[in-house]
Automatic annotation (TrEMBL):
Subunit comment: The complex is composed of two ATP-binding proteins (UgpC), two transmembrane proteins (UgpA and UgpE) and a solute-binding protein (UgpB).
Provenance organism: Agaricicola taiwanensis
Record SUPFAM superfamilies: MetI-like (SSF161098)
Protein name: sn-glycerol-3-phosphate transport system permease protein UgpA
Domain ABC transmembrane type-1, chain residue ranges per copy: 72-284
């Protein structure tokens, strides 16, 4: 039996409802993306008074630049550890919060608050806490005999920006994991407990597999966050230093374009960055989503 065809009585209203979203997408995504692609084929002076079409020369220069390869490696390390720490701690805190009997709502509220902090402010908070000259945690580290100086030590600077970026994103992950945990039927967990499954086994065989859709969504969101939205944290904490040890791809785009006024290569870097993020997202949907069970 054929299903009856659903028709919308007003033919213009659906397009009017879609128009604001389409306009925002065109103005704030496709137009800047097209401008970046066009600028990446040009060589301009610092004041934009003269232009020369150079084709793919900017891309060849960028990909042959050792500093850009360094930024690519830094971004890989930074994004992997930021995503892993933010997802892992977000899930851990969500599971622990669900076990609370009293004060559950209060704890959830406290956990969500850090997400309201702007990235630049979050970076400044961590900078003040771990500043080698006046930071309280830096003083405690020196007291314990550890030579803490992220302003001169590249590895320590990377640890600091990873911790600050992950801390900023933990609240977001916590919120979604709590929602995912609440959607799991309690009867499944109780049945497993009656059958003798321990707490750890119940988590890995029942809870975590049922959280797969939430985890996959957060994996995509956190990857995009690590590549793009951490600029404010890096700019506030290390400024890409010391010695370009924390200069990620998005920060190099800013540094070359707005500081060094090399617009052509900066635009080429932004195009490459966009292609990398799109490719990573496509790979995640192509291979990781296969293991996600929706049901």
């Amino acid at each position: 039996m054929a299903r009856p065809r659903v028709t919308f009585p007003n033919r213009i209203l659906p397009y009017l409802l879609l128009a604001p979203q389409v306009a925002i997408t065109l103005v704030f995504f496709y137009w800047p993306a097209s401008q970046a692609l066009y600028t990446s084929t040009l060589r301009e002076d610092a004041f934009g008074l003269a232009q020369e079409f150079v084709g793919l020369d900017n891309f060849r220069r960028v990909l042959g630049d050792p500093n850009y390869i360094n930024s690519l490696q830094v971004t890989g390390i930074f994004s992997v550890f930021t995503v892993a720490v933010a997802l892992g701690l977000g899930l851990l805190f969500a599971v622990m919060a669900e076990k609370l009997v009293r004060g559950r709502g209060f704890v959830r509220t406290l956990m969500i608050w850090p997400y309201a902090v702007a990235p630049a402010i979050a970076g400044m908070l961590w900078l003040f806490m771990f500043n080698p000259a006046m930071g309280s945690f830096a003083y405690m580290a020196r007291t314990a005999g550890y030579n803490w100086d992220p302003l001169l030590n590249g590895s320590q600077a990377m640890i600091l920006v990873i911790a600050a970026a992950a801390w900023k994103q933990i609240s977001y992950n916590f919120l979604f994991f709590v929602a995912g945990l609440q959607a799991i039927p309690k009867s499944l967990i109780e049945a497993a407990a009656i059958d003798g499954a321990g707490e750890t086994k119940r988590f890995w065989t029942i809870i975590f597999p049922l959280l797969a859709p939430t985890t996959f969504f957060l994996l995509v969101v956190n990857t995009v966050y690590a590549f793009f939205d951490t600029f404010g944290i890096i700019h506030a904490v290390t400024g890409g230093g010391p010695g370009k040890a924390t200069e990620t791809l998005v920060y190099k785009v800013y540094n070359d374009g707005f500081v060094n006024l090399n617009f052509g290569q900066s635009a080429a870097q932004s195009v490459i960055l966009m292609v990398i993020v799109i490719a990573l997202t496509a790979i995640q949907f192509r291979y990781v989503e296969r293991k996600v069970h929706y049901g």
